[in-house]
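Much of the work behind modern protein science is quiet bookkeeping, done one molecule at a time. Below is the pair of lines this work produces for a single protein:

***
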Amino acid sequence: MYRVIWKKQTGLIGPSRFLTSDSKLFPNDHDSPNMLTDCPGPKSHQLHHKLQLLQNAGAVTFFADYEKSKGNFIVDADGNRLLDMFMQISSIPLGYNHPSIIDAVTNKVNMAMFVNRPALASFPPSTFPDKLNSTLMSVAPPGLHEVQQMAC
């Protein structure tokens, strides 16, 4: 996995193009793709048939093993490791099973948000304004005074 190095002095909003391949973003990250079978493989074909009996599974490409997926690599049910350029429609920007994300979702302070999944536009928790200020607003570009999170 490549680590993107940020350069604050450039004033860029996004990352600069300085990449290093010698360091990983978190321990035990996969180094490269590894194909053991065709993709989709035999296990994915079996699971697809099983799912098709329950619902329309026409959009399913393969079945993932999310416990084994790490960083930018998704592992399928057959053990194939693929470089994932889709990243769940960008909902996992730090990659699969990133320790910081795991810590955040298992932290008891955050647990009520994940368990109760509040409708934030209608019934936000009493701590919500302070959470927005300490998270999104703490990294907002200068001059941006409002944010709209999309986790309704």
